[in-house]
Specification:
The chain is an alpha+beta fold. The chain has 14 helices and ten strands. Strands 1, 2, 3, 4, 5, 8 and 10 form a seven-stranded antiparallel beta sheet that branches. The protein binds 2-oxoglutaric acid (AKG) and fe (ii) ion.
Length: about 350
């Protein structure tokens, strides 16, 4: 095996160094990659024939979709999902937002959480990360104990749009997180590292899923709430519009889970997820998305995920990740008496109490 690998290395080097014409050199370079690179980059997983084959070998995703009523062709025979509980009126047009969400996989609403974000900025020391280098800090919260987080995860417009989208009750799937992104490299650096012959393994070896085009858990919908102003000069998410309409599957998480930049850019319109603090980005996280890193381009988000009931998991509450501001008033709890049925049901898969871990 080691002998085979070193022969491959020699062939790669020879191919990439001996060819002088730029166009031919770029072709030679492509062929000189590890074969797994081609599989990951070009034989992506959403062509119909590949999907049939992959779903036969790896049926879990499609089965989970069916089980939770997310495949239109499958009658809701087994384990029909819970119908959405009754909602009181939302502060925005549910029908129009749900239609745009269904068509595009993404809807950006500036100012939706301006009040909650202002409160979070007052309470937590997020701005000190503006002085950091290459940091990804995060903290998760029990939304019942932190009123601003509670207001975001129980927002009536967001929950009603997701209920409409799933055709059933959305459940909070993880604890909401406050996340700071402060990379010390740009996307150009990152793309270079993926392509470099010397670091040919970087693409396959990179475990930071968010930098590569990927999709999340089956049946998941998400929001990002901008806690800092996010524009194209700061790190931001990119979303491939309409890519949520395709079913995705993979054979091996390391080799064909990620899509190449070339493939996504040539097949989809790319939406940069930008907007001032308070903006909500609603997205179907089975569409393709990725973090676009901008060197020292500070960004702070609240991230929240829902599903119709599958894969509910609770990351431990890590109170250390982002400190509370010294002298800030004690955190107010969410007033659960003010919640309607839809909101209460959305929290119903949370364990009764969560202790910091
Ligand atoms: O950090 C980002 O912009 C990407 C986040 C992401 O992949 C996710 O929230 O699922
Ligand atoms: Fe993701």
């Amino acid at each position: 095996m080691a002998g085979l690998q070193s022969t491959w290395q020699r062939v790669r080097r020879a191919l990439s160094q001996r060819v002088k014409t730029p166009a031919l050199r770029s072709i030679a370079r492509t062929f000189a990659h590890d074969p797994r690179y081609h599989y990951a980059c070009f034989h992506t997983t959403d062509t119909a024939a590949a999907l049939l084959f992959r779903n036969a070998l790896k049926p879990k995703r499609i089965f989970t979709k069916g089980l939770y009523g997310q495949l239109p062709v499958v009658p809701k025979v087994f384990g029909a999902p819970r119908p959405p509980a009754t909602a009181t009126e939302a502060r925005g047009s549910v029908a129009d937002t749900a239609r745009r969400f269904r068509e595009d996989g993404i809807v950006i609403i500036p100012g939706l959480f301006a009040k909650e974000v202002a409160a979070l900025r007052e309470r937590y020391e997020i701005d000190r990360f503006r002085e950091s280098r290459n940091c990804y800090a995060g903290r998760r919260f029990d939304p019942r104990r932190e009123a601003s987080m509670g207001a975001i995860v129980t927002d009536r417009l967001v929950l009603s749009v997701f209920a409409e989208h799933f055709g059933c009750q959305p459940f909070l799937q993880h604890l909401p997180g406050l996340v700071v992104t402060m990379p010390d490299f740009s996307d150009a650096d990152y793309q270079r590292s993926l392509r470099s012959m010397d670091r040919g393994g970087a693409y396959l070896g990179n475990k930071n899923a968010n930098l590569n085009w990927h999709y999340d858990t089956v049946n998941q919908v998400s929001i990002h709430v901008h806690v800092s102003d996010v524009d194209t000069r700061t790190s931001h998410m990119l979303y491939a519009r309409t890519s949520h309409l395709r079913h995705h599957n993979y054979l091996h998480h390391d080799y064909d889970y990620y899509y190449s930049d070339e493939y996504v850019r040539s097949h989809y319109e790319i939406v940069p997820c930008v907007g001032p603090a308070g903006t909500a980005v609603l997205f179907d996280s089975n569409g393709l998305h990725r973090l676009y890193p901008v060197s020292r381009g500070y960004r702070c988000l609240v991230i929240v995920d829902w599903s119709p009931g599958n894969d509910c998991a609770y990351f431990p509450i890590n109170e250390e990740g982002i400190a509370s501001r010294p002298g800030a008033a004690p955190t107010a709890a969410l007033n659960e008496l003010t919640l309607d049925e839809l909101q209460r049901a959305s929290l119903s898969k949370l364990p009764a109490s969560l202790t910091p871990g």
